[in-house]
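Changelog note: in this version the structure field was regenerated for every chain. One regenerated record is shown below for reference.
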Amino acid sequence: MSKRTKPEAEERAKGDTLTEVLRVGARKLLTQALEAEVAELLEMYAEERDEPGRAVVVRNGHQPEREIQTRIGPVTVQVPKVRSRQGKPVSFRSTLVPPYVRKTASLEAAIPWLY
């Protein structure tokens, strides 16, 4: 059994720190992109108002957090929700994080090559 030298251990710790920084950055960028998508949807319905003058389509919190497997490891996301104050349902479907997606397309394409 060989012992790791100090420089190898430090290099590995730096790599893990870098990966964590990349994950945090990816999560922030994804959150910003999701907020821009939901803002675009709300802008489409901005003109629609109910009797008291309130917006018909409004934000309604977030879906539960879920992890998406990426090449840099799992990235946790929370997709925003919207609702309609009138009878017709309105739902937010992100183009970046579609429902039920748990892996990125590039990761799914790589999996068959691993076998």
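Spot check on this record: The first helix runs from residue 6 to 44. Residues 6-114 form one domain.
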